[in-house]
Amino acid sequence: MRNRRDLCRAVSGCTNMSDLLFKCLSCGKNLCVKDVSIGRSFSCPECNKEVIAPEPDFSFGCPHCNTDLSAPDSMAMQNVHCPICENIFTIPAVFRSTPSAPKVNHCPSCWSKMPADIYICGYCLRDIRTGKKHPVSLIPTGL
């Protein structure tokens, strides 16, 4: 039986790029390919089902040998063997800050969405600052 380093090399045919760690979707086996194999398909060595190497979502280093590795988000906090030194380690979790959504107000009367810089509801004419309804005469005419 081949060791993990040979398997990684045999699947991708390359030895000088970053390794991509991911799971077979059919059997759950941890797999490893070189990053030049991203998007390519091959047979899982465990179940022989077709597997496509996914795009990685983050990169990290093996804590034992510092080998450059990458993985999809689904591999975070999974225990794996390093394809080079074969030590077991846990893939780190990656915490990304989510971009803040634009501020949106809601009319307390009709619950319509309103941009943050608008304070009079375009549907019910309620001023969200005071809660009072504005007279219809404030609506522009002649348009």
Strand and helix layout:
Elements: H1 4-12, E1 19-23, E2 30-34, E3 41-43, E4 50-52, E5 58-61, E6 68-71, E7 79-81, E8 88-90, E9 104-106, E10 113-115
Parallel strand pairs: 1-6
Antiparallel strand pairs: 1-2, 3-4, 5-6, 7-8, 9-10
Beta-strand fraction estimate: 25-35%
Count of DSSP H/I helices: 1
Low-confidence stretches: 1-16
Characterize the quaternary organization of these chains. Answer: single chain
Cα radius of gyration in angstroms:
27 Å
Shape: elongated
Find the structural class using helix and strand composition: mainly beta
The helix/strand series, from N terminus to C terminus, equals HEEEEEEEEEE
Strands side by side in the biggest sheet: 2-1-6-5
Average pLDDT, all residues: 79
How many β-strand runs? 10
Helical percentage: under 10%
Total tally of structural domains: 2
Biggest pleated sheet: 4 strands, mixed
Q: What is the first-to-last residue Cα distance?
A: 80 Å
Structure characterization notes:
The chain has 143 residues and is mainly β. It has two domains: 4-90, no CATH class; 97-143. The protein is 6% helix and 25% strand. It has one helix and ten strands; from the N terminus they run H-E-E-E-E-E-E-E-E-E-E. It is elongated. It starts with a helix and ends in a 28-residue tail after the last strand.
Q: What brief labels describe this structure?
A:
6% helix, two-stranded antiparallel sheet, 143 residues, 2 domains, mainly beta, disordered N terminus, 10 strands
Short characterization:
By secondary structure, the chain is mostly beta strands. Helices cover 6% and strands 25% of the residues.
